[in-house]
Write the structure tokens for this entry.
Amino acid sequence: MTVKEEERYRRLSEDLIGDWRLKQMKNYIQHGSITTYDHCLQVARTAFSLKCSLKINCDERALVRAALLHDYFLYDWHDHGDHLHGYHHPYIAAEKADMDFSLTEREKRAIMTHMWPLTLLHPPVSKEGWLLTLADKMVSTRETLFMRGRVEV
């Protein structure tokens, strides 16, 4: 990202990143030893970087907020007992995030569709949703296959 794009990203993300409710995600592991918090930070940065490098015109605030909150389910999915976590968590995360952060419909929909194509009948319907979905796949693949420790932001 350029310096101006980096500054825009920081401005768009700083409120949520500093919020104690979002920081609760540090208590839960997402992939390997990567916390859900670190995973969401990386997805948000990747989604915003994709938006900039591909020169996609979209609602930047909605993109960053949805990316930061896309896994805001606040439980350890590894021992939650829900073997269909991949299918259910987008709706749980959207509901919890909406309760705590008053999401727009665009943000909520992007979160609910980020697991596509796993949720085959519910594809993303906005640029923000597609960018979030792609960024999540990229970051999740890297974390699952190559990362051993915490993600540096």
User: Anything to note?
Assistant: The mean pLDDT is 89.
